[in-house]
Amino acid sequence: MTAKHLQDTVELHNGVKMPWFGLGVFKVQEGDEVVQSVKAAIKNGYRSIDTAAVYKNEEGVGQGLRQALKETGLKREDLFITSKVWNSDQGYDSTLKAYEESLQKLGLEYLDLYLIHWPVKGKYKETWRALETLYKEGRVRAIGVSNFHVHHLKDVLEDAEIKPMVNQVEYHPRLTQTELRAFCREQGIQLEAWSPLAQGQLLNDETLKKIAAQYNKSVAQVILRWDLQNEVITIPKSINEHRIIENADIFDFELTTEDMEKISGLNEDSRVGPDPDNFDF
């Protein structure tokens, strides 16, 4: 099922509905910058906001959410809010504590999705156990992981009582993650893309420019559309209201199978971020 509208959702394996499209706030400054980005996104129809403890902007996200709810008349349950436990907080007790801290900063009573940010060796299984506790206690609506390879997922699944609902990974036309996508689909784990535009590195690609011209769309819009047609949730970041609106203007066209294949053919297995098997933070 490809999203037809900005507020279309995918049903996670536990029945929770998550928007296909949202705003990411990685590297968005705490304070007015993040407050305004969140407000602009919600005002213009976005319903999903993705942050993380390590982004150090949860307080601003919370402020933006409160102001947006007041201004739009929406309710908290109309929104889908994600945060992530950072590497230094991994482990059972420290994850439970980190979750409370994130809630406090965001000013929320619950999160819609809580993720393990990176697979910290020797710790992520304990961290997962903490997420299962939060989920079983009804403190969070869905739980998942981020930056997990197939072997990390298999390791978690060996002992997990609850299967991750989402795996958020670096995903763009130069990193199509074919094996991981297939494994997640088989397991009913929803894939989500971070850095869908490869931090701007793809915007001058000739193949993408040609495809974009055919549809009278920008390269960014074509890439984001490709994500959705591949059934991958996507959360592009922007601090500019015009760009926030433009990024979401991707529901009035559909890429042909041929163009989808051309875009996937740009894969080089190249990353803009660290490899989850070899990260140092």
Automatic annotation (TrEMBL):
<dbReference type="InterPro" id="IPR020471">
    <property type="entry name" value="AKR"/>
</dbReference>
<keyword id="KW-0521">NADP</keyword>
<dbReference type="Pfam" id="PF00248">
    <property type="entry name" value="Aldo_ket_red"/>
</dbReference>
<feature type="active site" description="Proton donor">
    <location>
        <position position="55"/>
    </location>
</feature>
<dbReference type="GO" id="GO:0016616">
    <property type="term" value="F:oxidoreductase activity, acting on the CH-OH group of donors, NAD or NADP as acceptor"/>
</dbReference>
<feature type="domain" description="NADP-dependent oxidoreductase">
    <location>
        <begin position="30"/>
        <end position="267"/>
    </location>
</feature>
<dbReference type="InterPro" id="IPR018170">
    <property type="entry name" value="Aldo/ket_reductase_CS"/>
</dbReference>
<protein>
    <submittedName>
        <fullName>Aldo/keto reductase</fullName>
    </submittedName>
</protein>
<dbReference type="InterPro" id="IPR036812">
    <property type="entry name" value="NAD(P)_OxRdtase_dom_sf"/>
</dbReference>
<feature type="site" description="Lowers pKa of active site Tyr">
    <location>
        <position position="84"/>
    </location>
</feature>
<dbReference type="InterPro" id="IPR023210">
    <property type="entry name" value="NADP_OxRdtase_dom"/>
</dbReference>
<keyword id="KW-0560">Oxidoreductase</keyword>
<dbReference type="InterPro" id="IPR044500">
    <property type="entry name" value="AKR5G"/>
</dbReference>
<feature type="binding site">
    <location>
        <position position="117"/>
    </location>
    <ligand>
        <name>substrate</name>
    </ligand>
</feature>
<comment type="similarity">
    <text>Belongs to the aldo/keto reductase family.</text>
</comment>
